[in-house]
Write a structure and sequence with these properties.
binds iron/sulfur cluster; two-stranded antiparallel sheet; nine-stranded mixed β-sheet; 12 helices; about 300 residues; Alpha-Beta Plaits
Length: about 300
């Protein structure tokens, strides 16, 4: 049994697949999307966040720090390198001025929390969604969680960028009930500029997953396309995405997600500049026009979700 690194478990989610869901956030992602809503999910190791404005100067963290630091001022910095009890300071902070992001958990621990809400899944047609970060970056741990879902009769979804070994992606497709597959930018060089990686592997993996699904051996697929003005809505971009979706060997549903900047505060908290500056949300008419491109090619499409 392996341990995974998880940075959040959110209950009663209605945006990560059908019905009421519990979303389990895996920490670590190979991509660095400019619009990432969860920048705390990118680094594949635990991190500490400080909110100095909440500190009540109680001194608890100083007593707990094995390196005799002043955590309220330096927790999470290079001074913590070599800490034998990383996050001990945050564990005793009564004011949530220090927050540990990322906790090692076993699949049994994660699923113990997920299973508490079984009645909601049964009533709503929901289940659990593994998201992140990139769940496939912790493949063994993900497969252990999925095996418990199968054994317990809980429907599972996996939200992925598709950047993974094809063999692993196909195994995850067989072990889960739904794959939420992100399609970001169709032009590979612009995909690299916006996410840090080219898209050939992502597109070929999606074709392989669709082939497996067409044989009835794999989960259903929802294609999720964030629409980000100036990034993936240049002339021809959305047509290319719609063509690609229509060319896959299995019918799938597409979801167009309008860009929003609600994660801006998270970047501020991390002391980082918001990467997309002042990009605005796309107008409703723009979203409708984009949806029409998919409908015209026979791909069922929804806005949002
Ligand atoms: S992470 Fe460790 S060394 Fe750093 S402030 Fe917290 S307890 Fe001290
Ligand atoms: S434990 Fe929290 S509130 Fe107390 S001094 Fe440390 S950071 Fe401030």
């Amino acid at each position: 049994m392996s341990a995974g690194l998880v940075f959040d478990i959110r209950k009663f989610s209605i945006h990560d697949g059908p019905g009421i869901r519990t979303a389990v956030f895996f920490k670590g992602c190979p991509l660095h999307c400019l619009w990432c809503h969860n920048p705390e999910g990118i680094a594949p190791f635990p991190e500490l966040l400080r909110r100095p404005e909440r500190c009540v100067d109680c001194g608890s963290c100083r007593k707990a720090c094995p390196l005799n630091l002043d955590p309220a001022r330096v927790a999470g910095s290079a001074a913590c390198r070599g800490c034998p009890d990383f996050g001990a300071c945050a564990a005793v902070c009564p004011a949530e001025a220090l927050q540990l992001v990322g906790r090692r958990m076993s699949a049994e621990e994660v699923m113990g929390i997920v299973l508490r809400d079984r009645p909601f899944y049964e009533e709503s047609g929901g289940g659990v969604t593994f998201t992140g970060g990139e769940p496939l970056a912790q493949g063994e741990f993900l497969l252990e969680c999925l095996a418990i879902c199968r054994a317990e009769g809980i429907r599972s979804a996996v939200d992925t960028s598709g950047w993974a070994a094809e063999e692993l992606l196909l195994e995850v497709g067989r072990a889960s009930d739904l794959i939420l597959y992100d399609l970001k930018v169709m032009d590979s060089e612009r995909h690299r500029a916006a996410t840090g990686l080219a898209n050939e592997l992502i597109l070929s993996n999606l074709r392989a997953l669709a082939r497996q699904a067409a044989r009835g051996a794999s989960a259903g697929i929802y294609l999720r396309l964030p629409l980000i003005p100036g990034i993936n809505d240049l002339p021809g971009d959305l047509e290319a995405a719609a063509e690609f979706a229509a060319s896959l060997e299995v019918p799938l549903e597409a979801y167009l997600l309008p860009y929003h900047d609600s994660a801006r505060g998270k970047y501020r908290l991390r002391g980082e500049a918001y990467p997309l500056g002042s990009v605005s949300a796309p107008a409703p008419e723009r979203m409708s026009a984009a949806a029409a491109l998919f409908e015209a090619r026979g791909v069922p499409v929804s806005i949002g979700g």
